[in-house]
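User: Some background: our group keeps a shared notebook of sequences we're curious about, and every so often someone picks one and asks for a predicted structure to add to the entry. Today it's my turn. The entry only has the sequence so far, pasted here. Could you supply the structure so I can complete it?
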Amino acid sequence: MARRKGLVFFLCLYLSIHCEVTTAAFFKPFNVTYDHRALIIDGKRRMLISAGIHYPRATPEMWPDLIAKSKEGGADVIQTYVFWNGHEPVRGKYNFEGRYDLVKFVKLVGSSGLYLHLRVGPYVCAEWNFGGFPVWLRDIPGIVFRTNNAPFKEEMERFVSKVVNLMREEKLFSWQGGPIIMLQMENEYGNIEHSFGKGGKEYVKWAARMALSLGAGVPWVMCKQPDAPDNIIDSCNAYYCDGFKPNSRDKPILWTEDWDGWYTEWGGRLPHRPVEDLAFAVARFFERGGSFQNYYMYFGGTNFGRTSGGPFYITSYDYDAPIDEYGLLSEPKWGHLKDLHAAIKLCEPALVASDSPIYIKLGPKQEAHVYHTDVQPNGLNLSLSEFRGRCSAFLANIDERKTATVTFRGQKYTIPPWSVSILPDCRNTAFNTAKVGAQTSVKPVEFDFPLVSNHFPVLQLMSHNGMSYISKPWMTVNEPIRIWSTSNFTVQGILEHLNVTKDQSDYLWYATSIYISADDVFFWEKNNVHPKLIIDSIRDILLVFVNGQLIGNAIGHWVKVAQTVQFSPGYNDLTLITQTVGLQNYGAYLEKDGAGIRGEIKLTGFKDGDIDLSKSLWTYQVGLQGEFLKFYLEDNEKAEWAELTHDAIPSTFTWYKTYFDPPAGSEPVALDLASMGKGQAWVNGHHIGRYWTLIAPKDGCKACDYRGPYNSDKCATNCGKPTQTWYHVPRSWLQASHNLLVIFEEVGGNPFDISVKLRSARTICAKVSESHYPSLSKFGDSDFIDQELLKSNKTPEMNLYCQGGDVISSITFASYGNPQGSCQNFVRGSCHAPNSLSIVSQACRGQKSCSLEISDTLFGGDPCQGVVKTLAVEATCSSPSRRGGSSLF
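Assistant: Of course. Here's the predicted structure to add to the notebook entry:
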């Protein structure tokens, strides 16, 4: 029956991509309210796990798989922001199509049987360009964002009403049979409210009144808002929220952002959060009275186009999430959390029945929270028999270093440091946050396809691992370093970058002419003086050209510039280009932040004193010629492309293009741009984002210990390497052949070394011992604990699986005994069952997944008495079709 239900579910998800999706067959109308303990859905309290997924950071073709993997991982809810600047790029002109088809996304969530938490905002932060605000908003006269300001409130109410009304028209609220159970107004406003004084406090009250007046019929949340009005739930955003209390005893404890990773800046290290610590934080939250917890992010995705905020946030928004940027499961994070969620669900009957836990101190840094009731809670439509005798307990050891043995209800329990043991029946341990039994998946580059042969600049048919593809030569055209557009204009003085570009492009050109007299040249030579260009402040990037030659640059967030310049006698062209690398997405007074040049700009070192350029005539031009002429589109005849040769690779401001065929199969595809410098890339007209090969610092990366409080610098990797070199190209953006790749390169690079990568989990590993807890999958989907099964199910299992269409093609290591090391570095210990490899190979080889009991029986006896046995396995996943089908086996 379960298999049939799963087939129907995936069929529904498949059909939803190709036809109108309806949620009517999955939900009957139900109400959502809350009390001090939890959200109450259709009359019943619920303990809810939520998965954060932002729909524009994936393609619609990816959505069903992401939702399905979230549900399989134990999520009850999907959470997303609503992105104002994506939905209203021009004032009054709305976009709800493609990656911004919010209605389709919500319906897909509903068709999966999951609920939805819609964070309307409309400010989102989210490391998203301008925090989700459309840039045109800052041009409204008299506007001040996010305070008691009439022009802002008018625009905000108009957009929020648009979204809420659209959801109502599509019958997507719970009381209409839809999946939306909760909404959010504003976002982390409590962090900046003080900046606006009395206006901030009035704004919070107004925003709450406005939200409630829309008649959405579901609860509203304001996260990180200690002064949220009585009829709005304030919630927690942090790495740990187990100590959070809302501002009223009548409100439940909600965790709207559980930061399971962190974002990354260009030139930065890659942050990772150990799953043991993440599971510890989640278990502690439910242990101490929490009822709704959302992973920020469960799938991070990609900042396609110019959507990345910052400034200086990278194109990838992987966020070290349980589902990676490409849609693959990140193991062991996804699997370990799945087991955690299953354990929490076993406890749910006791958790919802108890108004609060009983606290028991078990040691100096050890404690228990027990949920038990023999009485039906008031107001819940559940029978007394469903609650009688229910008992669940959480045993916590918050010591960061020492394992502890504690006594609870007459029984001893050993708890690793910084961990929680979950006892669904107050006796048998079903899960411990520090004991990871889930497999580890390693995602190497299995195939590497150079786009163009380095030896043949003509059309070639090339083969790699039995797969053929067409390679064409690179073509190139220079971006002119001059004012080229008829839409340029000349004014006196320096204009603010965003006031001119309106964020239609990263690039703004400033051009003026400087006359250099013979007296000035003589003065420089005689006194060994070097004139300088001085600018009070710039952000994010400044390029300085003299007579078409790049002579210097500056990078930073409002940094001073002192650039030595060299002029020739007579008239010289001085051209400045300022660039944005994502608009500010956080803080008060975003409308005043701006970009480009601030303050005075002058030339120093002249015979008659400094030259003030702040009042000179400057000619302005927005964007690149290639952007204006859309070089990135197919059949564009406006560019005079020439074939590129190895001995004539331009250094700055150059466009490149070629064509490529994608690798066969369904694995996610990425471009490796490690050979390039900085710029932007398009595939078949789709803007895959900015790229930049800035190098992370060489220090700051070390072995990670999950024990103790986490911060974003604690477990960093990638020191001394480029922050990002792979760039996701969604399969749905690719054709079977002849895919157009266009690159705009700013500072130099070698396009001949660009290659296509396949992202896949080829190597899988697991290490499970007799001390691990049994697989929770045996308990099924029941809301009730099978206590006899829990007591008898003592044998732990190792579960291995391959993703996509791959199967386990080989076992590269297997040892039952006391193996040492970690994935890809396993070695046999002093105790080893000689038949380990053959037993595991027989059970797993050729299968998509396999399960192995951790027992002497499976391996024909005890290989060494008195030793706690562990099974360690490393396996390889491959596609039978790629490797020649059944010949693999």
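Suggested note for the entry: The chain has a mean pLDDT of 90. Residues 443-477+629-759 form a domain with the Jelly Rolls fold (CATH 2.60.120).
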